[in-house]
Write a structure and sequence with these properties.
Layout lengths: L1 H10 L3 E4 L6 H6 L3 E4 L11 H4 L8 H11 L8 E5 L3 H4 L1 H11 L6 E4 L12 H19 L5 H26 L5 H11 L4 H15 L10 E6 L5 H9 L3 E7 L3 H4 L9 H10 L14 H12 L3 E7 L3 H16 L3 E7 L8 H16 L11
Parallel strand pairs: 1-2, 1-3, 3-4, 5-6, 5-7, 7-8
Helix pairs in contact: 4-6, 7-13, 8-9, 8-10, 11-16
């Protein structure tokens, strides 16, 4: 990710580092900025000494890696930061990060919006959200000497919609085993971190080159769910066990692009639709009631026999819903497996591989048991 940011910096567009999960990418792009969602630093940062000075060790790895990057010398690659109230941890990070940047003598403008978390059927906060978007545009225009253009905004939306369609096509190829999930996840993350011009072209070219072989759709299918894709070793264990990744409900993948609003010229109206009617995610609390129905429908459409929940340790938003989703899916005949990953677990995934193998044996045998494979 850091090398990619260096290339963006060389291209000359101001880089906006966005706190996860769902920033207004088309808006930033239409103003000539390069938005990058700040996750995917595990391969760049093997330790988190700067972050550990400010954050407790029970903070999720997403927050710790992002904080480490921003407080390190490499954090100078971003020209601005954007955040919204995605979760309790992320919403409290700006003050910590700004204090650390002040101590390092670096000034980085911070832009933020507040997304109302009240269910729309209880109270209409759409007008407030539209005002937040309009205020964000004003702040961006002043800071970067830009002028918002409806025409440019429409072009940015069109490019993101094309990228969304290509990403969904790649998911279908993964389900048919014409693509491996690891390559898909890596390429998708890279594409969504690029300026929107080359995104779709790179994804389309990659899809044409990779989707060549006929897979084995008769294998038991599973859905992967979680904030981030599992580590490479866990993906390898899933594929080695004879399971097929029939779909994903991962925040950095499917939840990001599965539902795009209708294209409109008014960015405030567009992002009102974008946030209120977003694909369900526990970090968007008001979408929580739709989580089970969406996952159930995904299982029916793909024929998946199981769901593997990849828990980001200390992500309370996800962990609050896991027990309910597991119980409800099992009642529908869909088996579930919960694995937990912490910041230092990438190299210690042998226990996960053993549990995945046991889970696969259950699906291959067609056993419809209700027991929970223990988390060892």
């Amino acid at each position: 990710m850091i090398e990619h940011l260096k290339e963006l910096k060389k291209a000359g567009r101001p880089v906006i580092g966005c706190f996860p999960l769902y920033p207004p990418l088309a808006l930033f792009d239409s103003l000539g900025l390069a938005p990058v969602v700040l996750w995917g630093f595990k391969s760049d940062l093997t330790e988190t000494p700067q972050s550990d000075k400010h954050l407790q060790n029970y903070t999720c790895s997403v927050a710790r890696y992002m904080t480490e990057f921003l407080l390190s010398e490499a954090g100078g690659l971003v020209d601005g930061l954007f955040m919204y109230n995605a979760c309790d941890t992320l919403r409290n990070l700006p003050e910590i990060i700004q204090k650390g940047l002040d101590q390092a003598g670096r000034q980085v403008p911070l832009f933020h919006i507040h997304v109302p978390m009240a269910p729309p059927h209880q109270t209409d906060a759409g007008g407030y959200l539209e005002n937040e978007i309009n205020s964000l545009i004003t702040d961006l225009e002043k800071t970067f000497d830009r002028h918002f253009s409806s025409y440019a905004f429409q072009k940015s939306i069109a490019r993101l919609e094309k990228l969304s369609r290509l990403s969904l096509a790649a998911e279908a190829a993964v389900a048919q085993e014409r693509l491996d999930f690891y390559s898909f996840a890596k390429t998708a993350h890279l594409a969504w971190a690029m300026p929107s011009g080359p995104q779709a072209d790179i994804t389309a070219d990659w899809l044409d080159k990779q989707a060549l072989d006929t897979g084995h759709p008769d294998k038991p299918g599973i859905i992967l769910s979680g904030i981030l894709p599992p580590p490479d070793s866990v993906i390898a264990a899933i594929e080695a066990s004879g399971l097929r990744i029939a779909g994903n409900d991962i925040a950095s993948l499917h939840r990001t692009y599965a539902a795009m609003p209708a294209a409109v010229t008014d960015p405030a109206a567009y992002y009102r639709d974008f946030y209120i009617n977003h694909y369900p995610c526990p970090t968007l609390l008001y979408t929580g009631d739709r989580r089970l129905s969406v996952l159930s429908e995904m299982c029916r459409e793909t024929g998946a026999q199981g769901v593997v929940f990849v828990g980001e340790k200390f992500c309370e938003y996800e962990y609050f819903e896991f027990p309910y989703l597991e119980k409800s899916l099992r009642e529908q005949g869909v088996q579930t497996l919960m694995i937990e990953l912490a910041i230092d677990d990438d190299a210690q995934t042998a226990p996960h591989a053993a549990r995945i193998e046991a889970f696969a044996e259950m699906l291959h045998s067609g056993t419809n048991t209700q027991y929970l494979i223990p988390n060892t």
